[in-house]
Amino acid sequence: MTSPLELVVPLHDPNQSLRLRRFLLAALVYGVAIGLMGLYVVLGFMTLVGWQITTAAILAVNGVIYTVLRSGRNERLRDPSLTGVQMFCTCLLMALTMYQVDSARGALLLLYLVLLMFGVLRLRQWQFMALGLFALVCYAAAIAAVWQTRPWAVNMDVELLQLAAMATLVPCGGFFAGYVGGLRRKLRDRHIALQQAREQAHDLRVLDPLTAVSNRSRIIEFLEYEVARAARLEQPLSVIMLDLDRFKRINRQYGHPVGDEVLKRVAERLQGAMRSIDGLGRYGGEEFLVVLPDTPLAEASVFAERLRERVEGCRFASLPPTFKLSVSVGLAEFRHGDGVWSLIERARGAADHALDAGGGRIDATESR
Ligand SMILES: Nc1nc2c(ncn2[C@@H]2O[C@H](COP(=O)(O)OP(=O)(O)OP(=O)(O)O)[C@@H](O)[C@H]2O)c(=O)[nH]1
């Protein structure tokens, strides 16, 4: 069931949720400002009409911003949090408020501090300076407009002092915004580095470092899962063991780096033939284990033949063109009561049988 909070803020999307929570915080400050202006009306510093106009403008602007955020249209924009737009609107709304007030504007000026505090946390240094200057210009324009229409409502000396005090806040805030921005960037870089380290740790745990296919424990884990699934759902499952023939000789004759290159290339070729649901792992030094979920023996034989051809068709830059790699392939199909090891041992036995028969061939214990 959708919770009442979920109706206001989409909890399933953390980014949108954060944006809307920030917006609601700003909306709360607007609510306080509306209340404060109500006090101005009671004390006779502002007309009721002025309060109504300002309140309507605040509600309209925030209504539009909320609708855009809630509908998700903001995600198509360059600044999806709408920080710039919200701050720009706040400057204009503040100017409108200042225009409606007849005296005691100083108390409302404190609300600019709130705006600048949000700016310090969210903006870059230059953006903050631009916002600060824009706020100053808006304030000056509001005072000029009051002076034109209701000169009795302006004490120019006081207004100029307030403007000067606000102007000193801009560079100070700019400095803090720069500092906070630097911290934010550092935090983001560390977060990225941590993420990469986590991925590397995961790769080290599950991948074979030489060939980058699953390591022995990972492919066995995968097979355990597939055996349990095949037993429960009564689905076919086959495994293929591929053993590179006379690999020791490659190492001895051409050196270990060449042996490594052969293993990497073979793994690449095998990987290229797999379906997304198949599993490929390096089972031992020159042995690869392929797990084929939902595949009966007959289909696995066709696939094994394709793998054998792919491996034997490999060419290696550091080996003579006459060099021909051959591979012995063993096949086994899951039978009721089979465990992981009995299945592997049958496939392995079949690969040994293929090697005993001269290598470069496929054998399946089940079909003998
Ligand atoms: N270059 C390289 N060689 C490896 C690696 N891991 C295992 N080997 C070598 O692979 C060879 C495997 O030898 P065997 O198990 O006797 O297999 P084989 O020489 O292919 O003999 P048959 O399987 O009987 O054809 C050994 O020489 C290992 O040193 C590796 O990561 N890199």
TrEMBL record:
Keywords, ordered alphabetically: Membrane, Transmembrane, Transmembrane helix
Transmembrane segments: 23-43, 49-69, 81-99, 105-121, 128-148, 160-180
Organism: Sediminicurvatus halobius
SUPFAM superfamilies: Nucleotide cyclase
The protein's name in its UniProt record: diguanylate cyclase
EC numbers on record: 2.7.7.65
PROSITE patterns: GGDEF
GO biological processes: cell adhesion involved in single-species biofilm formation; negative regulation of bacterial-type flagellum-dependent cell motility
GO cellular component term of the entry, any: plasma membrane
Pfam family, one: GGDEF
Reactions catalysed: 2 GTP = 3',3'-c-di-GMP + 2 diphosphate
One Gene Ontology MF term: diguanylate cyclase activity
PANTHER family with a match to the protein in the record: DIGUANYLATE CYCLASE DGCM-RELATED (PTHR45138:SF9), REGULATORY COMPONENTS OF SENSORY TRANSDUCTION SYSTEM (PTHR45138)
GGDEF domain location: 235-367
Domain of life: Bacteria
Stored CDD domains: GGDEF
